[in-house]
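Cross-check.
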Amino acid sequence: MQEAAAFLATARGSLEQEGITVQTLRVATDILTRVESVEEALRKARVVQAAAAATGISFVSYGAFSNARLLEEGLATKLLATPGGDAYTCCTFRWQPGMGVEEARSAARAIFSLGRATGDVGPFHFALTFAEEGFQTPFFPAASATRPGFAIATENSAQYAAALASAGEGGPAGVTPALRAAMAAGLRGVQACAVKLATATHVPYLGIDTSINPGLEGPSLAGAFESVGLGPFGGPGTLAVAERVTAAVKSLSGIDTTGYCGLMLPLAEDTGLAAASRALSVQTLLFYSAVCGCGLDTVPVPGVSDETPAGEAARLVAAAAALVLDIAGMAARLGKPLTCRLLPVAGGKAGQATAWDSPYLVPGTVLEL
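Predicted model, tokenized:
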């Protein structure tokens, strides 16, 4: 962790010297990959927490685990319900080939248990990932260290919105060239600096996750969609624009890439998407994932509370498990990495407005499971 902190300080200085704003410095570990018990995982997490606090690292991923028994034993809840000091800590459960209904039910129960124990905090810091072995991204909470090195993630909604606006209302055809040009121009300097940094420090450069990623205060992804002239986000034409955006993100010549490299649609992290959620469904968002991006991200769904009838709690678990299987099937069939990050609202009903404790989430609407 000391070496990572020293490198990140050097990286920040190098990037900022080139006029590139660095928002956060983060470390992803692989401490959960081979753990055999909840106790072992918690012991390792405490060591990482102490090292992060001692070196000033504020964002730490514990990485991914694939042991469904540990999921059933409450590893995610016990990891994330335990305060991590001042650090943002997260972890993921990585789906494996051959997993099925029982693992999906364990995952669903873990999501609702985490929501009951921690409110919106825990589920925001936990995700299920569906990807081939060796997949890695710098985006949290899916970040996991599958090999040593550094990678870069960007917040780029301003470039994205300007590019889509410049494409005009001529439909999707102009979106890809406009966005490709804007993103390439913005990322060339980042790439050049990263290559120099790798050469100087001998830390391998793993690439940039070029995914379109909104900022809480940046232009809305949904509003930019509508500038193309095909109507409101969520209506006919949304899939067409999403596919053209993804085509641009995946075709940036001269840029080393890693991770998803897609269009992220985090429902509770973008004001326009949150507003559009009144007209969206979980299945519609999954439909968009076939062409654009990263699966289901920060999607508010009904949660379980002490007052939830047993029958309704069982129905929610069954529905969430079926959804997990849908995402697993799509990821396997299309050969693309996907993520599932649901935000259960305790006692919430479909159509209900949301209010969050986290400053990183924006109000929206609970979607039916």
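The mean pLDDT is 92. Residues 126 and 214 are 19 Å apart (CA to CA). Passed to J.P. for a second look.
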